[in-house]
Amino acid sequence: EDQVTQSPEALRLQEGESSSLNCSYTVSGLRGLFWYRQDPGKGPEFLFTLYSAGEEKEKERLKATLTKKESFLHITAPKPEDSATYLCAVQASSGGSNYKLTFGKGTLLTVNP
Amino acid sequence: ETGVTQTPRHLVMGMTNKKSLKCEQHLGHNAMYWYKQSAKKPLELMFVYSLEERVENNSVPSRFSPECPNSSHLFLHLHTLQPEDSALYLCASSQDAGVETQYFGPGTRLTVL
């Protein structure tokens, strides 16, 4: 069974204090790993898709990296508007559904001014 | 309208009511999804439609009945729900079912009394 574990559950940072969020996964062949941002009461907003170990993608203050067992979302010099829940999801390439995204519970990030 | 829209945004219903949730995607995608998001739990895939054909039913109780009349519209018909069905119901779409990135709507917050 595919599993996704995100840590920490919650993270509180001061504005400008860089940090990383972790997404550990177990999947029978990885087709893709996805990062989303979710604000309270809203749907998840797509950030990145990573397909293979060693791949990196950047967007503004965010950088996502991927290894064979985990992914990191690095946040450089965060601002209060980066406060949100960050979700990680994986899609398997073999066994079971080809359509299913398995999500983690998310990391709630709070950036204080 | 752009992206994925959902109506209503909030719904309160009694256990004996019948109601429907509506989702519309304006992205020209071929696949649509229903997810359930409960507090402290990961997103759970409920149904997947590809070119208006249901391709996934993730062991969802029969009190939830999906309908996809065309590739742009998706409904979730609700009847005789239980209080534990209270959650945020999210619709998503992707170009095709598979590894394609899924784009989410804002969700319908459902409360079952």
Search tags:
heterodimer, A: 113 residues, mainly beta, five-stranded antiparallel sheet, 11 strands, 0% helix, globular, B: 113 residues, seven-stranded mixed sheet, four-stranded antiparallel sheet, 57% strand
Describe this structure in words.
The complex is a heterodimer of chains A (about 110) and B (about 110). Chain A is built from no helices and 11 strands. Chain A is an all-beta fold and about 110 residues long. With about 110 residues, chain B is an all-beta fold. Helices cover about 0% and strands about 55% of the residues of chain B. The interface of A and B includes residues 49 and 91 of A.
Number of strands of chain A: 11
What structural class do helix, strand and pairing data of chain B support?
A: mainly beta
Strand composition percent of chain B: over 45%
- The run of helices and strands of chain A is EEEEEEEEEEE
The gyration radius over C-alpha positions of chain A equals: 14 Å
Outline of chain B, from the CA principal axes?
globular
Q: Whole-number radius of gyration of chain B?
A: 13 Å
Offer a quick outline of the entry:
The complex is a heterodimer of chains A (about 110) and B (about 110). Chain A has about 110 residues and is mainly β. Chain A has strands at about 5, 10-15, 20-25, 30-40, 45-50, 55-60, 60-65, 70-75, 85-90, 100-105, 105-110.
